[in-house]
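tool=predict chain=A
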Amino acid sequence: MADRLLRWLPLVLVCGALAWVARRAAAPVSDPDDWWHLRLGNDLIGQRSLSAPDHWSVFATVPWVPTEPVPEVVSAYVERWFGLPGLAVLFCAAGLAVVATIFVTNRAEAALLPSAVATVFTVLASVGSMTSRPQLVSFVLLPIVLGAWLRTERDLRPRWWLVPLLWCWSLCHGFWVFGVAYGLVVWAGIVLSRRADRGTTLRLLAVAVASGAVVALNPLGLRVLEAPFVVNSTSQYIAEWARTDFGLIWPLGAVVMILGTAVIWGVTREGVSWARVLILLSACFLVWDAVRLVIVAALVMSPLFARALTTLVERSGGRVEPVARGASRRELTLVGGWAVACLVVVAVVSPQTSDKPGDVPVGLDAALDRLPAGTRVFNDYDVGGWMVWRHPDLEHYIDGLVTPYSVEHVDGYGRVVSQAPGWYAVVQRSGAEVALLRADSAAAAGLRNKGWTVEGTDDGYALLSRPAEFG
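tool=predict ok
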């Protein structure tokens, strides 16, 4: 009985993670960035080009390049054909692919139960990032690329297929830079281990360097190389780029894998290599550096943690199956079949659960529709994407894309939000006739104190109009 339980428990854990993703997907579209991604996808379709469209607002003045055009175009077509429920199904499919890829990558490194445990911890660490955005493509591709480099660490074979894969990745999300970085990290570990001759070392370096160089052939041009780093100039105003709050539960998924792997290595002295130590050190930095990078740390630690757990089980006298063969056909069939079942359920229920947007003030749309085209609106950051998509004729102050706005402009928004000295001068210079802000925000209270009147409220937002004397 115990053997049967242990045989099925790992797959139950993985299927539970898949079910969690499906449950999360079967809900109204509520990520504030989803809306501007849809707008951008439609613009790219309309202009038949992947280059940046015209600025969406008079407040946007900085040249920029799209970094996620392919998933944005796909999402725009899905929304056109199937509406918001179609986006829920697309989110579900992408999320299920993330979990399945993590598990399969772990199985190439470790036994079944450790692989499942590591998968669950990785999914826990993904709670803050598992949303319906193009970044899910990166969460699928990073385990694939890292898994390939870990195999290269073992057999020293160059895997040239990584080069075109990185080119495709660069059309989907800016985290392609991690695919290149971890190729160089593993290569550096191989050099430090002195396991490869000069010719092999150069061939492996060529794969890593070519994986980055090929991104320059992206149809968006050379500027796509700098795009992943542009966000640094305004990251202080973006919540997901803030330092990780370890008071939250979900970052512990990554922390446990980092600490657990280090402890097991220290105790067993097995499975440690220069490449893996460098990966662990990078994960320590990532999990500390920003909320958004917790999932990256978890993804790169997952196969290492799974391998370490396998070593621990073996050293304790436990019986584990060989891991070199990877996931068995039975495992793939069960996990794949369950994933398909989850996707079918979401497709069936999404017309009832996901047919309306979430966390946006749809009750204020009629009032916004009545505003003349070109009206300037000082809006909350989180509702900017909704205005870009639903009210494209209005001049919104800011949206989640951020990169088309100057640092000074974003700093001005931050000044208003925090009610810092000079905040009202920022509002006055904007020429905004109305404001769309969270009703309980300090900014809304500040405007009310300046004579702005509330014209309507919905879903926690307030629409305010400026007083007659404004200047």
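The chain has two domains: 2-30+65-348, 362-465. The first strand starts at residue 376 and ends at 379.
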